[in-house]
Structure formats: C-alpha cells, structure tokens
C-alpha cells in the first residue's frame, strides 16, 4: 500500500491556502495540515523548524505572504521579512528533512512591457516592493532547495474570498451593489478562480516537477472587461452606473503595477499534458455556484 503523502500548507486562512487545504484534505492520498498565521508565523525560524521537524512533511505549499501590494510598498521591511526571510525559514529545515517546497509566486515579477503572454523563461523586473520580495523568494527557494517548485499565479478570486475581485463577483451575483467599482482599463491579465488554481497545484504536486511553472486560466482581459462580464453573466443591463472606468495613473495607487501580465505556460501543456479552462468558463461556474446558495 502506498503511504499517504504529508503536506503542510501555510497561510491556510488566506484565499489560496484555504482552497488548497480544502482540496487536498478531500483526497485520502494526503495527510494535510493547513496552518493559520497564529499557529505558524513564518518570520519565526524556531516555530517553522519545530513544525517541520515534528511533521516531516513530504511537501510544504507556501501560500502565506504579505500580498496587499500597496501595504507592502508602505512596509518594505516587514514585507521582506515575511515574503523572503519566511521562505528561507522554510527552506533550512526542509534541507535537513528532505521535504519539497512549493512556493507560490506572482505575475507581478514582470514589468508588463511585453505585449504577448509571459512564459516561464521571460526576464523578471519588479515594479514594486511586493514584486521585489516575490522575486527574492523565488531566488531563495532555488538557492536553498534546487528541487523546489515555484508556481506563479495571477488575479485570484474565490467564492469565499475577501479581496476586490471576489467581493465584486459576490456583490453583483447577490445584487447587493453598494458601491461604484473603479475598474482600470489599461491593465490586462487573466482572472483565476482559486478552485482551478488549487486543482492545478495538486496536479503539479503529483507530477513532482521542479523549477518555475505558470499556472493561469486561458484567455486575457482588462479589469473593465472582467467587471462587465460579471454583470453580463448575471443578466444585469444598464450597469454603466455601477462602473467607473479609470486609467492606472488616475487610480493614484501607492504601488506601480505591470500594465500587461498575462501568464502563459509552455510547461503545462508540453511537459504535463494539463490545460486550465478559459477564464470566462471558470467565472461562469463560480457565479453559478454562488447562485446555488441564493
Ligand atoms: N491574490 C492574488 O491575486 C495573487 C496574485 C498573484 C500571486 N498571489 C500569491 O499567492 C499566494 C497566496 O495569496 P492569497 O491571495 O491567498 O493571499 P492572502 O489571502 O492574503 O493570504 C495570505 C495568508 O498569509 C498569512 N500570513 C501573513 N503573514 C504571515 C506570516 N508571517 N506567517 C504566516 N502566515 C502569514 C495571512 O494571515 P493573516 O491574514 O492572518 O495575516 C493570510 O492568511 C501569495 O504568495 C501571493 O503572493 C496572489
């Protein structure tokens, strides 16, 4: 009989970490422990080592991070401490126990100057502190654990999420719109339901590959197109009153963002025979699932 694999998921109360923990826990091939921030603080090397030495996980999926891009810009030291030192704290005991790290990264590692999808081998160039910290976290994983896997994801939302995209989908689907959505027209990428991303991470874990993989739905859109599609899928006409279309410069946000960051994977299809759905298909399913609870 094959021994179930032990998996430690950090940041298990976050948008992605919660879904990854939920998905893997449903499969008896895994013994899963998802840790919350209060159970396991990545900035404490001692705590991290204690967890890894006690559990001896075959895999650690690091979904913990400081992920609010503007907050990161205002708190660079804390950001580097969690997003980089935190990863080093995971790597050191994993080197000893032989466990593998799956480090979650981001499309923000790119500067957005390309006009065609970014692939795994494209050069990174950070525009903000968050991006810089995520590039350093990738380098840290590669340096200390060359067998580690780095999964770059983008524009996440989820049925239970609390970020802007998740809230917008939730409010519009439940016809509970109490705000005008400020949507940027000159930022293009791909929205992703965390359910698809978690399933993709599971496939990557099972294939046990290393290096960088881009994991994102097919297709691309601007934030304006994304917002309009959510209204259209909910059969709400005359939605222009609920949308304020902005250019990125008008939004006057603290941190710069890449104008174009669609992630494409040459590895998913060629090496792994795995395809993500189109973002519209995935969004439709999320909305239908939410409607089931109406
Ligand atoms: N959301 C996106 O659109 C997006 C896009 C690209 C990449 N990513 C990457 O995907 C990963 C997951 O992001 P997410 O959207 O799920 O983020 P999230 O919802 O903000 O979750 C991150 C989790 O990390 C925890 N955390 C923060 N500091 C910690 C620490 N020192 N020790 C342990 N846990 C800590 C947070 O706990 P508290 O809240 O209790 O502090 C939170 O539960 C991150 O690596 C992020 O960079 C996300």
Structural class: alpha/beta
**Main sheet record:** 6 strands, parallel
Q: Report the sheet-strand fraction.
A: 15-25%
> Mind telling me the CATH class of the domain at 5-155 and 192-218 and 261-277?
Alpha Beta
Helicity, as a percent range: 40-55%
Strand order of the largest sheet: 2-1-3-4-5-10
User: What letter string, H or E per element, gives the SSE order?
Assistant: EHEHEHHEHEEHEEEHEEHEHHH
**Low-confidence residue ranges:** none
Distance between the termini: 44 Å
Which term fits the overall shape? globular
What's the CATH architecture of the domain at 5-155 and 192-218 and 261-277? 3-Layer(aba) Sandwich
As for the CATH topology of the domain at 5-155 and 192-218 and 261-277, it is: Rossmann fold
Whole-angstrom Rg: 19 Å
pLDDT averaged residue by residue: 96
Ligands bound to this protein structure = NADP nicotinamide-adenine-dinucleotide phosphate
Let me know the number of strands.
12
Oligomer classification: single chain
CATH homologous superfamily designation of the domain at 5-155 and 192-218 and 261-277: NAD(P)-binding Rossmann-like Domain
């Amino acid at each position: 009989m094959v021994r179930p694999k032990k998996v430690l998921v950090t940041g298990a109360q976050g948008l992605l970490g919660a879904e990854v923990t939920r998905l893997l826990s449903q499969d008896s091939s895994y013994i899963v422990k998802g840790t919350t921030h209060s159970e396991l603080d990545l900035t404490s090397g001692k705590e991290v080592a204690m967890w890894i030495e006690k559990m001896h996980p075959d895999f650690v999926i690091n979904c913990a991070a400081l992920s609010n891009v503007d907050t990161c810009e205002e708190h660079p030291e804390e950001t580097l401490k969690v997003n980089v030192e935190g990863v080093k704290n995971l790597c050191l005991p994993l080197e000893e126990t032989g466990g593998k790290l799956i480090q979650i990264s981001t499309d923000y590692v790119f500067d957005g100057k390309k006009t065609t999808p970014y692939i795994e081998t494209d050069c990174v160039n950070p525009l903000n502190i968050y991006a810089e910290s995520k590039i350093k976290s990738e380098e840290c994983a590669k340096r200390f654990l060359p067998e580690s896997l780095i999964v770059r994801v983008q524009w996440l939302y989820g049925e239970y999420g609390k970020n802007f995209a998740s809230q917008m989908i939730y409010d519009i689907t439940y016809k509970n719109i109490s705000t005008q959505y400020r949507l940027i027209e000159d930022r293009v990428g791909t929205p992703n339901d965390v359910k698809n991303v978690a399933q993709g991470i599971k496939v990557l874990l099972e294939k046990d590959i290393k290096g960088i993989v881009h994991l994102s739905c097919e297709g691309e859109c601007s934030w304006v197109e994304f917002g309009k599609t959510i209204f259209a899928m909910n059969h709400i006409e005359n939605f222009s009153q609920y949308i304020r279309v902005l250019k990125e410069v008008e939004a006057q946000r603290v941190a710069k963002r890449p104008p174009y960051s669609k992630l494409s994977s040459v590895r998913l299809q060629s090496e792994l025979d795995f395809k993500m759905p189109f973002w519209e298909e995935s969004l439709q399913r999320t909305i239908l699932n939410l409607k089931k609870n109406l």
